[in-house]
Amino acid sequence: MCISYPRTGDQESKEVSKNTTKLGFASKNEAPPNNDYNWWFRVTMYAFLDVAGQTVATILGRLYYQKGGNSKWMGSFVQSAGYPVLFIPLIVLKLYSPKPTSFTPATNKNSPSVFTLGLIYLSLGLLMAGIQILYSYGMVSLPVSTYALVCGTQLVFTAVFSFFINSQKLTPFVINTVVLLTIAVALLAINTDAPVSATISKDVYIIGFFCTLAASAGTALFLSLTQLSFQKVIKRETLDAVLEMTIYASLFATFACLVGIFASGEWKGLKKEMSEYGDGPVSYVMTLVGIAVFWQVFSVGVFGLIFEASPLFCNVINTVGLPVVPIIGVIFFHDKFNGVKLVSLLLSCWGFVSYIYQHYIDHRRNKNR
């Protein structure tokens, strides 16, 4: 798939610059015409896949640990191990994408070398593996409602990293989001008198809290570095380029987690873990398969939003699932939802609305240019 600009000279550069927004990396216009119902349909569909995939994968991940699973490396492994399913849309894109025309800019002229691409994929893959193991530690140590609320800090870290790495401007509304989510997380940090169970100490609770916080920061860094890689190195703004990066980064992440399973010795207990799983071996396998599949559903939504809009807009959509997971946690896992969590949730939603409003302002400004 190629993005063609059948213009010349200054006209082309002005048009591309005009369509490039401070919220995204692509030259696609993030403010489509009002009658572009197809664009809105695609964005809505990708947003649904993003939120639904993230919510179900998080719930299944918590279920895995609640029913007797205890391998943190296995919990990390399944977060990226489903990447082979992404070869299907990639192959379809390769087969049915339009052929380059005489007006299409030469995309291979300044293409990065295989070594450079491999280094990018390896670096992002190892970062992804680190994020996954941190999330696993957080999930096993925190109630799912607390875990989801702490994950909402990803928006704060994205704003910070985008400021330093991607030259994102910190407007008053973005700063308001940062402050509100920081207060929300601080409230959760001092609410350490409700550990997951009697077998988990307050120290383990605190470690899980900071592991989840570090994982959220790592995810934000991952998004910013991905955006930077597309801007400075890959320089291809196509969906197949996004899929390729995610597939190969996930490949390295999966391999790193596999090494972790054997290096930590957790592989020795997997057979016993499966046989003693609360709902039986079949449920054990289906739960892990479900986690892997729904993380890929989430990934498809992420890729689509990146392609259609921007990484930061994608990250904003991720936080839409913030109120969903705590509510499900209360219903199905009987998590305690006290006043502190309620205030934290309200502050998080307020911060989310503030960020969305900033995006709306940028959207309107873009249309009027």
From TrEMBL:
Q: Name one GO molecular function term.
A: purine nucleoside transmembrane transporter activity
Classification via InterPro entries: EmrE-like (IPR037185), PUP_plant (IPR030182)
Keywords in alphabetical order: Membrane, Transmembrane, Transmembrane helix, Transport
Q: Which residues cross the membrane?
A: 73-93, 114-135, 147-166, 173-192, 204-225, 246-264, 284-305, 312-333, 339-357
SUPFAM superfamilies xref list = Multidrug resistance efflux transporter EmrE (SSF103481)
One GO cellular component, as annotated? membrane
Could you tell me where this protein is found in the cell? Membrane
Which topology term describes how it sits in the membrane? Answer: Multi-pass membrane protein
Which superkingdom, per the lineage? Eukaryota
**One Pfam family recorded for the sequence:** PUNUT
Sequence similarity:
Belongs to the purine permeases (TC 2.A.7.14) family.
Question: What is the recorded name of this protein?
Answer: Probable purine permease
